[in-house]
Amino acid sequence: MPRVFSGIQPTGDIHLGNLLGALRNWVSDQHEADSFYCIVDLHALTVPKEPGEVGQRTLELAQVLLAVGLDPEVCTLFVQSHVTEHSELAWLLQCVTSMGELRRMTQFKDKSEGKDFVSAGLFTYPALQAADILLYDTDRVPVGEDQIQHIELTRDVAERFNHRYGETFRLPAASVPTAGARVMDLQDPTRKMSKSSESPAGTILVTEDLGSVAKKIKRAVTDSEPEVRYDPAAKPGVSNLLSILGAVTGRDPEEVAGDYEQYGPLKSDTAEAVVELLRPIQERIAELQKDPERTAALLEVGAEKAREVASGVLERAKRNIGLLPRAHG
Ligand code: ATP
Ligand code: LTN
Fold first, then answer.
1. How far, in Å, from the CA of 101 to the mean position of ligand 1?
2. Is 25 close to ligand 1, i.e. is its CB under 6 Å away?
3. Could you tell me the pTM of the whole model?
């Protein structure tokens, strides 16, 4: 079975973009691949956080991931800081990553622009991400489009390491879903839907009140031309609704467009489809919230399974670099 790895940060609430662009594929991949899914709490620390905030968010995110359908009996679900090999390999990889490569990362540029305090961790973030992926001899990394640059950097770093120290890491490939790869903001459909978006009206949260979900979709920005057509450049708002409805119902947005002549029915059908997608997820979250210890126990099992793989790969990397091994016995 191929090995799949992906990560998600415990920052902000999970939105429809995360769900359609990433999490739904995690759920389907778990049955087709040996899948490792990681809540990357150390990545969340790259921007300042209040004490306790990241831990609370980690628990909440784990509940969402279980509720959307990750099955800890089938996949390995764990928390990054519970497997210390991630931090250790990240250091080794920082030392084979160039400043120039890191400077070219658009996520760094976006997240550092205009900020008073930019941490060194935000800059070296992609080396920790590369460590996450390479520790599991990963074949495939399911992510949204915005992460392709980080996966390419991971490959470059792995190749450089292999060239310098001998064959150590398997080279991973990004896999980006065709449907839902880029869910756009409902109020500004030229920007991706994001937790850090300015307008709450443009973002649909997985845990949001379902009445509010329907309202936001019905108020989504479209355009003044009446025709329903899938054309993201000329008609970003309408195309976004078509992609969302297509992604939820497993159809092509162009094909969905053929069913509609007016914006009104497109909006109500999209609203209904999203509400019905979210309803059972919200019910499962409510169940899980009643027993937080159970979620913590499942994460512990995941960390043990993850460590079994990660420790072997880290040892391989150290051996190939030729660090002095500890004396045994
Ligand atoms: P932020 O925008 O605040 O940085 P985010 O909303 O992009 O955060 P991440 O934690 O960075 O969330 O992303 C988790 C996963 O969801 C990634 O695989 C990412 O590619 C995917 N993703 C995020 N936003 C979207 C979107 N609008 N459409 C499709 N996929 C998305
Ligand atoms: N950078 C990613 C989160 C992330 C990740 C990973 C994704 C951290 N480590 C490893 C895939 C594989 C993001 O911002 N969405």
1. 22
2. no
3. 0.93
Per-residue pLDDT tens over the stretch 171-183: 999 998 776 668 9
Residue 305 is a catalytic residue: no
CB 57 within 8 A of CB 39: no
Query: Residue 144 CA: which ligand 1 atom is closest?
Result: 20
- pLDDT tens-digit profile of 63-104? 999 999 999 999 999 999 999 999 999 999 999 999 999 999
- How does strand 3-8 pair with strand 173-175? unpaired
Return the best residue to mutate from 108, 194, 199 for the ligand 1 pocket (most ligand atoms within 8 A of CB): 194
Angstrom distance (rounded) from CA 269 to CA 232: 19
What is the distance in A from the centroid of ligand 2 to the CA of 147?
Answer: 7
